[in-house]
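Chapter review: from sequence to fold.
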Amino acid sequence: MTAGAAPAASRVCHSCGQPVGATDSFCESCGAELAPPSVSDGAGGGPQVCESCSSSRITADGFCESCGHRARSGRDHQEVDLGLVAGVTDRGLRHHRNEDAMALATADTAAGGPAVVAVVCDGVSTSSRPDEASLAAARAAARVLLAGVRTGTDPAETSPAAVRAATEAVTALAGPQGDAPAATFVSAVLTAGAATVCWLGDSRAYWLAADPDSVRQLTTDDSLAEEMVAAGMLSEEDALASAHGHVVTRWIGADLGDLEPHVVRFEPPGPGALLLCSDGLWNYQPEAAGLAELALPAALTEPLDAVRALVSFALAAGGGDNVTAVLVPVSSAQPAPGLPPAAEPPASSEPPALSEPPPAPEPPPAPAGLT
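The token string follows.
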């Protein structure tokens, strides 16, 4: 990526060879998608190998011919490293498929600086086709966010639009019997010294830093556990351990209604890393300080190594769920990837404040067992 504004037609379409604009997402001549997000759809994962006996003799339906165990598919474990952002998603140790998905992208903004787009979705296991729902939502949302970056649209505007696109993509999966696929959602766009974070459900975003006073969780779960804690009924630990601890109250899906997502803007106060993750990670370490200890300092210079360590930690702790983690490093000289530092914040011992629009109307009761 280069600094400075690019000319209007600085590249050509990889499909038809016709000139395309630097901010274009699709070729006007043939309709091909230009530099699409990297999505954990199982493509490019290499040959399948049995985890139990290391045999590569895998049948078409995914079973090892040598020992009979089911082999890991492309989506079971996938890694994406784009330099400015890295992510890992894994099936975990107890699920038969990976119902998480991630989509990552980098691009030059309309103003000329680089930006990062990241989306993490976790399919709701008790809904239909949760693995397809998470993948469809992540892909659709990332495309909208990436197009917004290229055209210079405020991420606070494109983030709700990305949620709407994700909802349409998931709704399109619904079957004739009224099946309603669903997924949780968290996204981030980092540009010009700030991160815009958007979410529905209990997938989370964290700010991780060496300074213990600045680490924090940037999202608040849409879940019964969070409601019980807010009402003073249970401690966070007891709420998460309860039978309804992971029942979500908001999600991406056709049966939610017209609720707006949460959107916040966060200005990193110094060096650190933005973490997006599914509950398969934070189940085992919900505290931002604990996650920072696991990820830093590697997250600042080797985000793929750091995110591998986070996923390995979750697997070693039990691997009871699919786990996905994405890290975007931010240096002290570059509060957003490759961009000039933001103005110094006012002197304060308090962590930087988040700004959020007025709260949405009270969500409807979650369907029984929606986790």
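Two observations follow directly from the output. The CA atoms of residues 148 and 154 lie 7 Å apart. The radius of gyration is 20 Å.
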